[in-house]
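[READ THE FOLD]
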Amino acid sequence: MIGHRQEQQLREGLAELGLPLADTAVERLLAYLGLLLKWNKTYSLTAITEPERMVSHHLLDSLAAYAPIAAHAPTRLLDVGSGGGQPGIPLAIAQPDWHITLLDSNHKKTAFLRQAVIELGLNKQVEVVCDRVENVQPAQAFDLITSRAFADLADFSRLTRHLLADGGRWAALKGVQPFEEISALPENIHSEITPLAVPGLGAERCIVWMTPR
C-alpha cells in the first residue's frame, strides 16, 4: 500500500535532490507506484515490492538523473527497454515539456505502460511502442536515448544508433561505474561519466554519456 509514509520519503528525497515538484507531480509519482504494485501481482514488472524500496529504487533512482539530463535541454527522449517504466515515466511526470517514447519488446510490460500512461494522464506526452529496438523506424529521431537495464554500452549504442538525431546523446543509467564496458566502446564514440547520489539507495549510481565522434 502506497501511503503517507511513502509520500514523506519521496518529498524528503526530492528535497535532497534539489528537485522541487508540484503537489500534483508528487501525487502522480505515488499513483504510478500504486499501479506498479497492482499490476505486478499478475505481470511480474519488478522484483522490488516493498513500498519504501520502490520509492528509492524506482522513483528517486530515476529522478536523480533528471537534472543532468535536463542540462542538455532535450525535447524528444527514448527510453529503451523501459520495462515497468523507469526512468521514462518518472521523468515525464517531472518534466511535462519532454516528449518521451517508452520502448519494450515485452507485450505484458507494454500493456502495463499503456494503461499507466492513460491513468496518469500522460497520453499527450508519452508514447508506448512494443517492438524490438532494431525494428523501430520513427518519423523523427531522438535527441536523447536513455536506458536503465537494456544492454551493455556497446550494444546499447550499436542497436540504437539509427534512432539518434544529429547532435544527440545517449544517457545510460548504470550502477558501479562500468569501466570494462567503456573500454569496449568503439573509437568513434566518446564517453563521460556523471556520478549520481540517490537518496536512500545506499549504492553507487552513475550516468554514462555517449556521443558519436
Notes: The CA atoms of residues 15 and 21 lie 9 Å apart. The radius of gyration is 16 Å. The chain has one domain: 4-212.
